[in-house]
Amino acid sequence: MSAGKEYVCVMRVHGDFDLDELRRVVREFTGPIYQRPPLRSAVKRVVRVRRVYYIKILEVSGRDVLMRVGVEAGTYIRKLCHDIGEVLGCGAHMQELRRTRVGPFREDETLVTLQDVLDAYKIWTELGDDKYIRKVILPVEVGVSHLPKVIIKDSAVDAICHGASLAVTGILRVETGIKVTDLVALFTQKGELVALGEATMRSEEMVSSRRGIAVKVTRVIMRPGTYPPVWRIRKSR
Amino acid sequence: MSLPIDVTREVLIREEGVSDERYGKPPPKRSVEELLDAGIINLDKPPGPTSHEVVAWVKRILNLDRAGHAGTLDSPN
Predict the structure, then answer these.
(1) How far apart are CA A43 and CA A50, in angstroms?
(2) Cα–Cα distance measured from residue A110 to residue A120, given in angstroms and rounded to the nearest whole number
(3) CA–CA separation, A19 and A17 (whole Å)
(4) Is B12's CB within 8 Å of A175's CB?
(5) B74 catalytically annotated
(6) pLDDT band (50, 70, 90) for residue B77
(7) Which residue in chain B has the smallest CA separation from A120?
(8) Do B24 and A137 lie within an 8 Å CB cutoff?
(9) Which pLDDT tens digit goes with each residue over A2-43?
(10) pTM score, two decimals?
(11) Between A and B, how many residue pairs show a Cβ–Cβ distance under 8 A?
């Protein structure tokens, strides 16, 4: 997922340190930082730039530091802790880690445990009550709620479901801030996710252009046939 | 403390439209079967088992043919 992430972690510092000094070092690690992926990692080990959006020191207990960290995808928190320790002078390592956010997913009322999933499913299948299973399984739309939306006409839906690109003439509404190559979500007027795609125009152009392709579809979510195939009728004539 | 995706977006209107009520339906009106066919669980993964193992359990609990996950937390020690 390319969306930003947030973690809460415990960093164990390998020596005594001054809290103001730590605050200063932590400030140095916000913004763009260089990181080489650790030995045991899934990606090529070359130095790369990652953005740290925020680091908040929540609590300090002896040499343990509890921090909340917001970062760009692909940032290693273990490495971040180690590097903070280096700059601090005495070294440090990551003692504990919990992810508290990935894009639209947070530690909120939607977060459920395996036990919640099992209970909700049993209550639905055995007692016929769907109240809990509906809280556990969220519509796919929730997973793309962080992406800019493009609302399309009913007549454009089925063509998109078959992988066609979105022409500006199929657009009704567009959210601001879309730039070329941005990932966008195509929605029906009823709020259903149709597909994901790569913008080939900015938001303003999607609204003002007379013709042209606005979005190149990369992933279709809705099943073809959900909306009528207006585009086919014309073709068969 | 916000991520870049937390921007608020305005809506630009190109054209007014009406949706045909005979096709599709708003997400809250989906049946549980439809949610099971394509839905998302914000799961609090217990430490220990891998994401892969947890996905297999969820698949079994919900009697699914297909399931996956997005994002593994850190590499094993």
Answers:
(1) 14
(2) 13
(3) 6
(4) yes
(5) yes
(6) very low
(7) B62
(8) no
(9) 689 999 999 999 999 999 999 999 999 999 999 998 888 878
(10) 0.87
(11) 167
